[in-house]
Amino acid sequence: xxxxxxxxxxxxxxxxxxxxxxxxxxxxxxxxxxxxxxxxxxxxxxxxxxxxxxxxxxxxxxxxxxxxxxxxxxxxxxxxxxxxxxxxxxxxxxxxxxxxxxxxxxxxxxxxxxxxxxxxxxxxxxxxxxxxxxxxxxxxxxxxxxxxxxxxxxxxxxxxxxxxxxxxxxxxxxxxxxxxxxxxx
Length: 185
What we know:
Layout: H1 4-17, E1 27-40, E2 47-64, E3 67-80, E4 84-100, E5 106-123, E6 134-149, E7 154-166, E8 171-184
Antiparallel strand pairs: 1-2, 1-8, 2-3, 3-4, 4-5, 5-6, 6-7, 7-8
């Protein structure tokens, strides 16, 4: 059986291959920011808020002035609580709604899609894991962003996104706040 990451990557590749069917210019986005999660320890019931460095890479395909498709890879961060160190990554595809703000260079965007999130847990000294050290969870990803067109080919996007995740010792949602450079070609 194919893994969730492979299935989502295949869908993203198929979408990308449809590029000649659309007149709009595709784009690539690269960014960094912070990831935030509350690790709800399933064994002890304790919750620890953690943050880490996040990075994103996305490929986008505008359908029209109000809709785009995006495929994304996100390194959501490395999170550490007293019992576990957890690295979380995600691969997904989303539909992006676009609301241009009048005649300005600003637009608001929201996204909804599906993502496969991988959480890799490593026990801290003196602790052990009872389940798998690497766990995949396919779930809904949601996001909101504001974008400013700096030039016809370059934009700056500030985004907040949320992903579902599960791991041997914790589960829930993880959020990111990122600044991305968007480049059209």
